[in-house]
Write a structure and sequence with these properties.
This protein has seven helices and 31 strands. It is mostly beta strands and 434 residues long. The chain folds into five domains: 32 residues; 78 residues, RNA Polymerase Alpha Subunit, Chain A, domain 2 (Beta Complex); 94 residues, Beta Complex (RNA Polymerase Alpha Subunit, Chain A, domain 2), CATH 2.170.120.40; 91 residues, RNA Polymerase Alpha Subunit, Chain A, domain 2, CATH 2.170.120.40; 97 residues, RNA Polymerase Alpha Subunit, Chain A, domain 2 (Beta Complex). The strands form seven sheets. Strands 2, 5, 8, 10, 11, 12, 13, 14 and 15 form a nine-stranded mixed β-sheet that branches. Strands 6-4-1-3-7 form a five-stranded mixed β-sheet. Strands 29-27-24-26-30 form a five-stranded mixed β-sheet. The relative contact order is 0.07.
């Protein structure tokens, strides 16, 4: 029967149908792979995720990062990012000791509809880890005052909301922990405070122990901060005698450092101290430059003293000369550098000048102290627009303190008469006769 069926027309048609399907599939596969060829791409620095059990902790690992190479269709590989790759090491069934552990890779959205599955490999393909038994112990909490309250304030005993914290980790690490510590900073506190402190595991030398977990990670501490009754905070101000400042000067600014002091003494003496204390008198008879000096603070009682021992403050006074202006009119403008025999005509012949500067220096000037000259040296006969040079013959003022009106003058330079006549004769000789 089978021979008879094979020899029939139906068997021939079925065979041709199968062969045609295989050929079509082959052509389709070639077309697809030609348009989307195979590609490889490497990613470095991929972190390893360690899956641990409840009985062991890692104490060492040959590496915590690996390189992953992906292979697949170009469209799939090129669209992958390092965030799509997860590398895991399963340690959940391992006990204490040294182990070689294979790595497992998961790539999110790995197939992306491609007919070729995405393949990958890691470098290294496995890692070596050492595990120790996991231990959990309770340790008391200590508060370390890292910064005391501001000067003039005291604090009470800190009170915690919990007395102990749990320490967990590898046995060799946990055995180093003698206490759990929280650092308390009261440097900016002037009132009772309740705050959260981060807790750290520390060894016998007070150094932090790494690679152990502290539970809870924070504790709430309450501590009272109050003002000391034998210390008073007072502001200090420089006692500047303005009447000693000479005429023609003024004060731009006064500053002092520090701006406040802490005075210590018996409480009954401090009650009589004002909130502001002054320095010894500061006189300013010679204000050629700014005043900078350390000046003693006047204490109202000899039984009082400044905490820190320094009863002086640094006083800085910025002194400026008063500014004044004086307009001088009808200043005649002279000239220099004219060739022999030539004439120079300046329009206008006189100008006005405004002199601006410190009052004392401006008031000391006279009309004759301001001189204006036009330098025409090297200029050919002709008409020019020139700015005169300014000269102040006394005092410390310069041309930068002077502005002119007008600032630019019309200057005409004429050649000597004989040169003018010769030039005119030459021009007439060159003219053609009528």
């Amino acid at each position: 029967m089978i021979r008879r069926w094979l020899g029939s027309d139906k068997s021939g048609n079925l065979l041709w149908l199968v062969v045609s399907a295989l050929v079509a599939t082959g052509f389709w596969y070639i077309a697809v792979t030609s348009s989307d060829p195979i590609d490889r791409r490497s990613f470095s620095g991929i972190p390893i995720r360690f899956d641990l059990g409840d009985e062991a902790e890692i104490t060492s690992s040959s590496t915590k990062f690996v390189s992953v190479t992906l292979q697949g269709s170009q469209a799939t590989v090129s669209s992958r990012r390092s965030d799509d790759i997860e590398v895991r090491a399963d340690l959940s069934r391992l006990g204490p000791g040294v182990h070689s552990v294979p790595l497992d890779v998961t790539v999110s959205s790995a197939d992306s509809g491609s007919i070729r599955r995405l393949a990958w490999q890691t470098s290294p393909s496995q890692i070596t880890v050492e595990l120790e038994p996991k231990e959990v112990h309770a340790r008391g909490i200590q508060i370390e005052l890292s910064s005391p309250p501001p000067l003039g304030y005291i604090h009470g005993e800190p009170e915690l909301d919990i007395a102990e914290a749990r320490i967990s980790g590898a046995a060799s690490k946990v055995s180093q922990v003698v206490a759990v510590r929280g650092d308390l900073d009261l440097s900016a506190r002037r009132n009772p405070v309740s705050m959260s402190l981060r807790l750290w595991a520390v060894d016998a030398d007070g150094n932090r122990v790494a690679d152990v977990a502290v539970e809870p990670q924070t504790a709430t501490v309450s501590v009272s901060v109050t003002r000391r009754d034998d210390v008073k905070q007072v502001f200090v101000r420089p006692d500047v005698r303005l009447e000693t400042l000479p005429e023609g000067f003024s004060i731009k600014s006064v500053s002092n450092e520090p701006s406040l002091l802490f005075i210590s003494g018996a409480p009954e003496n401090l009650e009589a101290v004002a909130d502001v204390l002054y320095t010894e008198p500061i006189t300013l008879e010679a204000p050629e430059e700014d005043f900078v000096a350390r000046v003693p603070v006047q204490l109202p009682d000899e039984d009082l003293f400044v905490m820190g021992g320094d009863s002086t403050i640094l006083v800085s006074i910025e002194i400026l000369a008063d500014i004044d202006s004086w307009q001088i009119d009808n200043i005649e403008v002279g000239h220099i550098g004219a060739p022999a025999g030539s004439t120079v005509s300046i329009v206008p012949k006189t100008v006005s000048a405004i002199v601006t500067g410190p009052v004392l220096q401006v008031e000391a000037l006279t009309f004759e102290d301001v001189q204006l000259l036009v330098d025409v040296a090297g200029l050919e006969p002709g008409v020019y627009d020139l700015s005169p040079a300014i000269s102040i013959t006394s005092g410390e003022l310069s041309e930068d303190n002077v502005s002119l009106s007008p600032a630019v003058l019309n200057v005409e330079i004429s050649a000597p008469p004989e040169e003018s006549a010769a030039a005119e004769a030459t021009e007439n000789a060159e003219e053609p006769s009528a």
